[in-house]
Amino acid sequence: MQPLAYRMRPTNIDEVVGQQHLVGPGKIIRRMVDAKMLSSMILYGPPGTGKTSIASAIAGSTHYAFRMLNAATDSKKDLQIVAEEAKMSGTVILLLDEIHRLDKTKQDFLLPHLENGRIILIGATTENPYISINPAIRSRTQIFEVKPLAENDIKVAIERALKDKTRGLGESPVHLNDTAETFLTQATNGDLRSALNGLELAVKSTPATDGKINITLPIIEECVQRKAVSNDKNGDAHYDVISAFQKSIRGSDVNAALHYMGRLIEAGDLPSIARRLMVIAYEDIGLGNPQACARTVSAVQAAEKLGFPEARIPLADAVIDLALSPKSNSGIVAIDAALEDIRAGKAGEVPDQLRDAHYKGAAKLNRGVGYKFPHDYPNDWVKQQYLPDRLKQATYYQPKTNGKYEKALAEQYQRLLAAQRH
To answer: Which residues form the AAA+ ATPase domain (predicted)?
Structure first.
């Protein structure tokens, strides 16, 4: 029997879950389908994120024949059969999985068919096509990145599968409790195939009680082979772990920080780790070590591309870097102080010399008159008022001196303040 994930593949573009940057209203693949002007493409991204589903949906929406082959295991003869079908019946959409493993013989056979449009190739790969795919194929295709599904996308697919009586589990009296459903949307890390197959295993292996198949958190944990390490029914434990994670980095305890991130990794919660690390970098380290902030962004981007389990490596590097970096929260303190004045009604008018003066008649309104262009003066600085009159003595930035970089900024800041007020 075909797995649930296979049976629930979309039959048209409207049924695609997630990937709205490609199939949403007005987006590129949706436009191709609506106009029936398909071009060959390569879809790349992590497993279970919808590459095959998009190909199936395109075929269903356009009513073209749809065939699936694997570049690694299917032969040139299999490609020839698809090409013959295209000659006889018209356009065929060919989903070629693992396209990065397409050898030269198969590639040379395919190229003329792509050129004349008889075969619309949709290549699927988890590898970066700019590195792993031959330029001859790459130049004849458009390349689209397929992203891990959001928790809400997976929830939509799960609920659709539970209701569908033809392709899904709608004929079974399933009750999936809220905790189990939330965990299923999180633990599979954006992989819809794993979520649906785990759900199906849970349903088929759980006996009914009082006419209901009750799917609980322990059952889902067993079926997806992942433990809800940081989750509880109300989500309190999950947020406690995230809080402890940030506070451990802020407190420079690298071992505790790695421990709490390990719990989040075991829960499969890459989105929370990624978001929290970038917040920590700029909120708690900030100007104490700006280079660490940039490195953290790069590490998060690498982790999101890699997915688990490999994502743990750049994430661990970032945690160690941040925990052992000099700390400074002067940035968040400064902007919050400025916002506090603004929200208290202390904004004031922009000084005339700073106002927009690019239009005719501005000078008659005294706009821009008297503005001193700093680059015309020694050291590219000249004394003049920038803040509104009622706030001209305000100071929001209170520098820390834990790191060399901010210590240098603090010295420059004090020199400029003194010169401005002299």
So the answer is: 37-149
Tokens representing residue 245 in the block: 């994670």
In a 13 Å sphere around the CA of 352, the CA atoms on its Cβ side amount to: 8
Contact 97, 78 (CB under 8 A): no
pLDDT at 421: 81
Q: What is the pLDDT of residue 232?
A: 43
26 CB-contact burial (10 Å; exposed 0-12 / middle 13-18 / buried 19+): exposed
- What domains appear along the chain, each with residue ranges and CATH number? 4-145 (3.40.50.300), 151-224 (1.10.8.60), 236-323 (1.20.272.10), 345-421 (1.10.3710.10)
Cβ-proximal residues to 9 (8 Å cutoff; 6+ apart), any chain: 52, 53, 56, 57
What pairs with residue 123 in β-bridges?
42, 96
> Which tokens in the block code for residue 104?
């030269």
pLDDT of residue 300 exceeding 90, the answer is yes
- Cβ atoms of residues 318 and 277 within 8 Å: yes
Residue 170 class from Cβ within 10 Å (0-12 exposed, 13-18 middle, 19+ buried)? middle
- The per-residue pLDDT of the chain, averaged, comes to 88
Instruction: Give the pLDDT of residue 269.
Output: 82
Nearest to 287 by CA among 155, 398, 202: 398
* pLDDT score of 397: 92
**Residue type for position 14:** D
CB atoms < 10 A from the CB of 74, how many? 17
Give me the pLDDT at residue 236, please. 59
Least confident of 204-208, 288-292, 389-393: 389-393
pLDDT at 227: 58
pLDDT at 189 over 80: no
Contacts 24+ apart (CB under 8 A), 242-250: 242/272, 242/276, 245/273, 245/276, 246/276, 246/279, 246/280, 246/284, 248/323, 249/280, 249/284, 249/319, 249/322, 249/323, 250/280, 250/284, 250/327
